[in-house]
Automatic annotation (TrEMBL), chains A, B:
<dbReference type="GO" id="GO:0005777">
    <property type="term" value="C:peroxisome"/>
</dbReference>
<dbReference type="InterPro" id="IPR020578">
    <property type="entry name" value="Aminotrans_V_PyrdxlP_BS"/>
</dbReference>
<dbReference type="Pfam" id="PF00266">
    <property type="entry name" value="Aminotran_5"/>
</dbReference>
<keyword id="KW-0663">Pyridoxal phosphate</keyword>
<dbReference type="InterPro" id="IPR000192">
    <property type="entry name" value="Aminotrans_V_dom"/>
</dbReference>
<dbReference type="InterPro" id="IPR015421">
    <property type="entry name" value="PyrdxlP-dep_Trfase_major"/>
</dbReference>
<dbReference type="GO" id="GO:0008453">
    <property type="term" value="F:alanine-glyoxylate transaminase activity"/>
</dbReference>
<feature type="domain" description="Aminotransferase class V">
    <location>
        <begin position="29"/>
        <end position="276"/>
    </location>
</feature>
<dbReference type="GO" id="GO:0004760">
    <property type="term" value="F:L-serine-pyruvate transaminase activity"/>
</dbReference>
<comment type="similarity">
    <text>Belongs to the class-V pyridoxal-phosphate-dependent aminotransferase family.</text>
</comment>
<feature type="modified residue" description="N6-(pyridoxal phosphate)lysine">
    <location>
        <position position="201"/>
    </location>
</feature>
<protein>
    <recommendedName>
        <fullName>alanine--glyoxylate transaminase</fullName>
        <ecNumber>2.6.1.44</ecNumber>
    </recommendedName>
</protein>
<dbReference type="InterPro" id="IPR024169">
    <property type="entry name" value="SP_NH2Trfase/AEP_transaminase"/>
</dbReference>
<dbReference type="InterPro" id="IPR015422">
    <property type="entry name" value="PyrdxlP-dep_Trfase_small"/>
</dbReference>
<keyword id="KW-0808">Transferase</keyword>
<dbReference type="InterPro" id="IPR015424">
    <property type="entry name" value="PyrdxlP-dep_Trfase"/>
</dbReference>
<dbReference type="GO" id="GO:0019265">
    <property type="term" value="P:glycine biosynthetic process, by transamination of glyoxylate"/>
</dbReference>
Length: 407, 407
């Protein structure tokens, strides 16, 4: 790898939205890699390493990664166009905006979708899920591990266990765009079939890469479709096109379907190298690099600190119980009488950028803080402290301003 | 824009394949922009400017740009999924590998495709085209402006003129992945309907952005589909999803469908700013920046120098006539008895990276040189001279080695 040299990213406001997130200097420097051929012998192992390292992050030995130029959304198309044939049934556990959108995507490719909608801030009860699975045969079940719109965390292990028990052939598809590398995921142990994500959240790289891992069971279902002669519903998202490419790069040769985002693959490689590094690989012996499991713990700790500070400031979380609140982000209702226009600019003036609401019906009533990647793993940055103090200061300023105006 | 500061890309081999191409330091530095929110007021005008500038590069006032995270291939999906309804006819002018693939893409979405195949190195005769258009009603005609596999340049103006004359309602779709900003394109004057391209060739940015411009006529055809209730064939490539996003960013507000590749948009902005800059904007008054039209001329000149040097070395071009040879790349047959394994490593040892063949039937018999963007526009780099001398030296070395071995 090229040495980092004097590169240091420009001073900027702290970006703590639920993705894109702050990224390490090493990652940005890699994104500025000189132009390279996508079939160069120097680039091939970089791509191959990304395939191998993403398996490590997800604790899987046998899943097949797909790394494709595109946003996280493209993962839905991969599922809908490769795994579901027109007219087949899909069950969507809906915990927010992204459940609605995944439904829309599945229907575009001809799936017959049943949704189980959770109340805002809640999850679907497991007996409701079991009953639905008993009621009808579903080709796939999809759920959002962390719905970025609500900050609701689903119990992936228990969902997968329920499906395997009640409807063993149903494929378990997890939208993990806002959870990979920030929430615990054990692909093989939990017996998941698809985990789809993107580069710009917990994985700590710039946006532009759709990342999907498919279990041998899922690949088998797709192969059966092919053997029946049922054409995939998409060209760009077709596994027939991409599988040979992934296999080639992993085995050390190049193949061409569409030009990969070469620079971003270098950046992704730099971030994955940090995430999967042996503790001893740290450049600073005083601060060994955390393991993947330690990273999950660091995200939990940072999350608890932020959520507890928010509670202390009188803010109410959108998730209905702590057990269903994400560890990589926090969704908070504004206090009575406070709007996004009051709070977000005041945070911005303190160089802290958070996100507004996204879920249609309550969009104006809440805001979201992302706390993933270097912001929580590298404590020397002090990002968590900065978020907490900016939030407290801003709310006090608003209170003072309102008191003044009322006089 | 952030100042370039001390950033200079690392020394590396000269990349002169037909994309990705060498890019300017400014562009790579922009690709290393600190993480930014995709809905930030600072980012919105950057995205909006890209939309405005790409119109300038293509000489269009009224076309609608779509800038989507993905490779150039995604542009085909956009055409096939939005403009062609299942069962409708598409006519493909095939001048190489990319004609085969576009056909495959159109068929995936249900189009009934007729191909007019040119001989290797040639184009489809205009009377053949006119006869085909008279014979059947086609929803779209597609052609590859420069087929990257063969280096064949199609006469876009005359193709469009022929379609308008014989079959005025047929949409003229140009795959311009390997021609935008290196070959003359006059979108409005030539009355084109779709021009699709990618970021990593003449446009001089890293790969990862699908760029498509649609005429008001093409948008009208798509709107008619929507009004008839015919759903688009793709979710990720759906204009229903993307058009509101493009309109929002251009008008100065943010909207969300899928996270844009923020860093790459900064890089694309940096490259478009150089391409569309007023000559007076050059930092060095001695070397004013060329206009877009002057860039076309610079590509023609560099191309002629390389092609004439290759001819002098006894190399035969793949395009059958000079008039159908691209100006942004050169495809050359190996001399008798010389293989890719003889020539490419020798060029590589001289820090010049070219590409092998791509067209299946003759893949082993030829190689390709890209000469686009900064490599031809910034003469101070000396890239053209470097290509020519490395090619001459390598061929002489091969000759000497073969003579020695024969002794």
């Amino acid at each position: 790898m090229t040495s980092l040299g004097p590169f240091k990213q420009a001073p900027h406001k702290l970006l703590v939205i639920p993705g894109p997130i702050e990224v390490a200097d090493e990652v940005l420097f890699a994104n500025a890699h000189p132009s390279m051929s996508h079939v160069s012998p120097d680039f091939i192992p970089v791509f191959g390493d990304c395939i191998r390292m993403i398996r490590e992050v997800l604790f899987t030995k046998g899943a097949q990664p797909f790394l494709i130029s595109g946003s996280g959304t493209l993962g839905w198309d991969q599922v809908a166009a490769n795994l579901v044939e027109p007219g087949e049934n899909a069950l969507v556990l809906n915990t927010g905006y992204f459940g609605d959108s995944f439904t829309d995507c599945l229907e575009t490719y001809g799936a017959s979708v049943t949704q189980l909608k959770a109340p805002i801030g809640g999850t679907v009860p497991f007996d409701t899920l079991a009953a639905a699975l008993q009621d009808k045969r579903y080709k796939v079940l999809t759920f959002t591990h962390v719905d970025t719109s609500t900050g609701v965390l689903s119990d992936a292990a228990r969902i997968a266990e329920t499906v395997r028990r009640v409807s063993p052939d149903t494929l378990v598809v997890m939208d993990a765009v806002c959870s990979v590398a920030s929430e615990e995921i054990k692909f093989d142990e939990w017996d998941l079939d698809v985990v789809l994500t993107a580069s710009q959240k917990g994985l700590g790289a710039p946006p532009g890469l759709s990342i999907l891992l498919a279990s041998p069971r899922a690949v088998g279902v797709w192969e059966k479709r092919k053997s029946k002669g049922v054409r995939e519903g998409s060209y760009y998202a077709s596994w027939s096109k991409w599988l040979p490419i992934m296999k080639a790069y992993e085995s050390g040769s190049a193949a061409y379907f569409a030009t990969p985002p070469v620079n971003l693959i270098y950046a992704f490689h730099a971030s994955l190298s940090l995430i999967t590094a042996k503790p001893s690989a740290s450049p600073d012996p005083e601060t060994p690099l955390p393991s993947v499991n330690e990273r999950f713990a660091l995200h939990r700790t940072a999350s608890q600190r932020i959520k507890s500070a928010a509670k202390g400031l009188g803010l109410k979380q959108l998730p209905l119980q702590d057990a269903v609140a994400a560890n990589g982000m926090t969704a908070l209702y504004f206090p009575e009488g406070v709007t996004a226009g009051d709070l977000l600019p005041r945070l911005g003036a303190k160089d802290v950028v958070v996100a507004g609401g996204l879920l249609g019906s309550i969009k104006e009533k809440y805001f979201r803080i992302g706390h993933m990647g270097v912001s929580v793993v590298d404590s020397r940055r002090g990002d968590v402290e900065k978020i907490i103090s900016a939030l407290g200061d801003s709310l006090r300023e608003i209170k003072d301003a309102k008191a003044k105006a009322a006089k």
